[in-house]
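ok so I'm stuck.
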Amino acid sequence: MPTSLTDIKSHLDTRLGEKVVVTVQVGRNKTLERHGMLAETFPAVFVVELEEDENLKRVSYSYTDILTKNIEMDFTDEVSEED
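replied:
not stuck anymore, here's the structure
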């Protein structure tokens, strides 16, 4: 992932509409994995629309979450290329 907020936003702008897996750091050695689609980007946050089986429909994250590694994003096409 890019290393500045503007680079992160630019990178995500090019990936709109793609399926994504978001891994969230929720506490000490605990993570939560969410599957969905990158729906929208705004100046300070981006929105992921979650798949049907999730309790929530949409979640938003800040670009600083990526920069500080509080979340990790893996696009499904990148995951399938590694297999």
